[in-house]
Design goal:
Shape: globular
Order of helices and strands: HHHHHHHH
Largest sheet: none
Number of helices: 8
Distance between the termini: 33 Å
Strand content: under 5%
Number of strands: 0
Length: about 200
């Protein structure tokens, strides 16, 4: 429980002060070995990201209280689609980062770097970015009145990611490529999986 509370505090700081939030996360990792960082990021994924995503997905049932969502089955379908979309988006983003990051941490993007890029930080960026999107989805479920601003809030995650390029070790000259890759892998894949699952289920 304490881990989730700490996770959400970090999430709030990333929302309201993204640059400072990434810096604080980096400071908290000083002195940790690579193995310890990897273990911490995996713990974050399993103990924080997945439970928070599940809670946000279950918020679909709040729609029942104001007669929206297509009944129990409609809410169940929406909650399954929401959670599975977030889960699959995390896997796509990890795969995409694994392919792209060796070039993005290199001085020349045409030549992959031999240096080890911080995979643990990449996973943490994915977790926090998708958690923000999950919280926006939960907000849309809880608020009865349709507010246009909520529809655009998920794209704020692009700003959060942009402020974290140094955190994951991307070279300044490669920031543009990094943003294209991360936006497509995180934001794009969530909506793509959601669309696909809505068609299939």
């Amino acid at each position: 429980m304490n881990e989730i509370l700490s996770y959400m505090r970090n999430m709030l700081q990333l929302v309201f002060a993204p640059a400072r939030g990434w810096e604080d996360l980096e400071d908290s990792e000083r002195g940790m070995s690579l193995k310890a960082q990897e273990q911490a990021s995996l713990r974050l994924y399993y103990r924080c990201f997945l439970p928070v995503s599940a809670i946000c997905a279950l918020s679909c049932f709040v729609r029942l209280f104001y007669g929206d969502g297509g009944g129990w089955l409609g809410c169940l379908q929406l909650s399954i689609v929401t959670f599975v979309s977030l889960f699959l988006a995390a896997q796509v983003a990890r795969w995409a980062m694994g392919l792209a990051m060796p070039r993005l941490v290199s001085d020349d993007p045409r030549e992959p770097s031999d240096a080890e890029w911080p995979k643990s930080r990449g996973l943490e960026m994915i977790c926090y970015s998708l958690t923000f999107m999950a919280l926006v989805f939960m907000l849309a479920n809880v608020v009865k009145v349709k507010i246009t601003l909520i529809e655009f809030l998920p794209f704020y995650v692009v700003f959060i990611i942009w402020k974290g390029w140094r955190y994951v070790g991307v070279k300044e000259r490669n920031v543009g490529l990094f943003m294209i890759m991360e936006t497509a892998a995180i934001v794009g894949s969530v909506y793509l999986w959601s669309f696909f699952l809505n068609v299939v289920i």
